[in-house]
Amino acid sequence: MTHPVVHSWRLLKWGRILARHGALRGIERDANTPPRLRRILRLARFGARTPEVPRYADAFQAIGPAAIKLGQTLATRPDLVGEAAAHDLLRLQDALPPVPFAEIRPQLLASFGRPIEHLFASIDEEPVGAASIAQVHRAVTTDGRHVAIKVLRPGVEDEFARAIETYEWAAAQVEPIGGELARLQPRLVIETFKRWTARELDLRREAASASELGDAMAAEPDYLVPVVDWQRTTGKVLTIEWIDGIKLSDRAALIEQGYDLPALARTLVHAFLRQAIAEGFFHADMHQGNLFAIPGNRIVAIDFGIMGRIDRRARVWLAEILYGLITGNYRRVAEIHFEAGYVPPHHNVDEFATALRAVGEPMRGLPVKDMSIGMMLDSLFSITRDFDMATQPHLLLLQKTMVMVEGVATSLDPDINMWDTAGPVVEEWIRTELGPEAAIADRLITDFRTLARLPELVRRIEERFPAPGGAPPAPPLREIEVVRIGGGWRYAVVAALAALAGAGAALAALHW
């Protein structure tokens, strides 16, 4: 167990970096920041030259690999870090200098347990990409297939473990302060980040995600997922089909090669909606660098370390919320929030419906072409503070990905009509899942299962039928000792240290 002094030292070091990049200014100016903490923050930046415009992405890049990943996580949480910070954090490129192949070779040998020559005829020692967790090399297998090899950077697991332990400790210190920090659940934020990182550090899980998504997208022939080479994949090495294509970020090259950009944009939107709404399992890192165009106006996705999953009940609620906002049925949208447990029952449904009207009506006044699904969801989540809505990471990840997809689609086709493009997919799913036939089928299945369990239900009815809730259960959080400081300060000093680190919990106070 790491001593609190070690955690504090790390936080002070990271906090100073944040201060030099102006990333603490928002906390200092926020009205919710306690006065004592505000004074300590002023001391923290004393003597530091701060830029006029905070450079959050640069700050996280300077702190190191784990902070880069944390920053990417926080970029999905505008409700927590504020719009300006979330937008700037999207600049994080997750690019680092590559590790020499001389250090990568032992990693490959240890992972496979046999000579590399038995698996690969050749490996290009110059990586085609290097990120905070892994780097990628092009190779040819012994049976002549061209593949990409993704290898974990040596020592990365230990580095991330140390950083995450400090993030957890910092979040545990500030959450008991209560108020806005408690509502934003910084410990849950870090726990979500920890689970995402655990998936990325086990490349077998990324391979499994790619395989599952490939199966799910079989009905979308213009959106492809590379095939995993399971015989050459381990926890530290992922071998996957090599893709020769043009990145969607290279618009000039796409035009030069004769690609139909509006068709690519439509394919991307349809593919994402099929993943998120129909399958409930979506690629949550669909930026331009992870998407390639190949002949036939088809799209190939790569990098499946961050995936989102939404259960059917949450997808039904989401569909009803979107439909209610579009049609102006704000009362129904409000009721869904209460039924789902997103809004605590002590609030008034009608008051919440009025707040939703303030979100929906400006949208309805815009031409359809100018309306953005991502913008609508962003406005919806912006009212969470007033109604004590606990954050829902699964929906916020979906919102972030939706905004990302919209950005890529509009870069390909500035005139794309998102509602017209998305409409057929959404309408088909709503008709299938919420129509009368689906309701009858669901009722028959439910009744049959209930009858089959009747003897057990009679004995344990209360345990079998808990009160329904809208959000998935929060994961168990590790017990962390909270440092208590006497003299009336009550965590002020430790909270300041955590804030200086900006490790999720500190940035929770940002809303500028």
Q: In brief, what are we looking at here?
A:
Helix content is 54%, strand content 9%. By secondary structure, the chain is α+β, with helices and mostly antiparallel strands. Helix 16 crosses helix 17.
From the spread of the alpha carbons, the general shape counts as globular
Count of alpha and pi helical runs = 23
Sheet of most strands: 5 strands, antiparallel
Q: What helical percentage do the residues reach?
A: 40-55%
Question: Could you give the count of β-strands?
Answer: 11
Poorly predicted residue ranges: 486-501, 503-512
What's the Cα radius of gyration? Answer: 24 Å
How would you describe the oligomerization state of the chains in this entry?
Answer: single chain
Report how far apart the termini are.
Answer: 36 Å
Mean pLDDT: 78
Please indicate the percent range of residues in DSSP E strands (runs of 2 or more): 5-15%
User: What structural category do the secondary elements indicate?
Assistant: alpha+beta
Descriptive report:
It is a single chain. The protein is an alpha+beta fold and 512 residues long. 54% of the residues lie in helices and 9% in strands. The protein has 23 helices and eleven strands. Strands 1, 2, 3, 4 and 6 form a five-stranded antiparallel beta sheet that branches. Helix 9 (156-174) packs antiparallel against helix 23 (492-501). The protein starts with a helix and ends in an 11-residue tail after the last helix.
